[in-house]
# Entry
Amino acid sequence: MTKPNLTRRQWMLGSGAATAGWLLQPQARAVTAGSTGIRAGAAIADITLPLGASNLGVISRNPPPTHIHDPLYARCLALDDGTTQLAFAICDLRMIDRERTEAVRRVLAEAVGLPPAHILISATHSHSAPAVLSTNLHSDLDRMYYRLLVQRIADGIRTALNRLAPAEIGWGVGQVPQHVFNRRWFMRPEAIPPNPFGETGDRVRMNPPRASEDLIRPAGPVDAQVSVLAARHVDGRPLALLANYGLHYVGGFGREDVSADYFGFFARRIRQQLDADSTWPPFVAMMSNGASGDVNNIDFRRPRQSYPPYQRMQEVADDVADEVCRVVQDLEYRRDVKLAAAETDLNLGVRRPDRQRLQWAEEIWQQVQDDTPRGRPQIYAAEARMLAEYPETVPVKLQALRIGEVGIAAAPCEVFAETGLAIKAQSPLQPSFVIELANGYNGYLPTPQQHQWGGYETWPSRGAYLDVDAEPHIRATLLELLGDVAPTV
Ligand SMILES: [Zn+2]
# Structure
């Protein structure tokens, strides 16, 4: 484990010099002049996966899609307090790697001078949307899509910036406890199969058989809170809404479909409920994923129920959206809202395969036919061979943003609920959101204790490779960054 590198921290706290490029844009200057208080703009950019392109995940493997059930969007929000701008792009993707998020940030720095650290780009984690990783590039179509994706996300943010208009912002929290369940369970030892490497000793099983008598208890908590930040025009028309809820995804999609999962259904429901279907510029609702690395929608105590495709997504989206609308009704809106941003890179160790594991992987790999691993041992052998090519340490981008009294902590990992709850509880900004899968992709983030208990999220793969002690470093650094963006009293 390398020590986190705090000396290379890039401080971008409302840097006037860095934002000057944007303020020199004629359109922005015109709007800035004479305006006091916050301005906001929102836009969507279509990032739908082309049919036939790669829709692979890391471990889960969708075939190339043959049908677009509903489009994928980058849902974008821009904010400007007169000296500082922030921008969000919440993307209907399973994950998005750092190569792509950095490319979006570069496009925006060049085009409009927006400082990179002021931009948050995250994936929702829809599993009927692509995992944007270099290793999933297989065809010309994939390469074309990846290039277009970067441009489209940047275009979405630029369009949101172009639409900046005097606004009012409100924030609040609601509760939706009925749709979040911890998916990691302690089970009787005999009910836990060996891991993909043929080793026994895991105490926790992910997605255990439902209603099994071998279930003991969940291995972690859930966070039932849904957080809301709403922007409206000064005449009261809805402008944008950014929500945050810790639910991995819902699923129940057609196997060869492209879909934004419940995140897309949520956005549509909010638009309807707020009567914002035909506003111009368009109202944009977006659901960011909270700390949900170990949380899904399945009540493991009950027997499996089957639903027609997309029904469950709709139900969950409706319930979450209705609670969000209830919260929105009571919001107190304000114009005097200050913005700030800070970010840093932590260099963290990678759990690369040792000689013995690599030897195991090479032996298993001999059995793989057509370069297509089948079954867990072959899939994890393929993952081990890929991890062997990873560097010893990787930079992990951590970011904190402030919007008025709201804190937003963003991490490029699948963060467990307990980590999210700890950050929310200890944050100097209340309320705080935790947005996962943001600004890159560094896999699952179990706590050291969870690593000891084992299970899917701890087995080394491209989806779970940070060192066992990564979580405490990331948690502490996010809290430190929140402290840095919090107002000084
Ligand atoms: Zn996941």
Notes: Residues 125, 248, 414 surround zinc ion (CB under 6 Å). DSSP finds eleven helices and 23 strands in the chain.
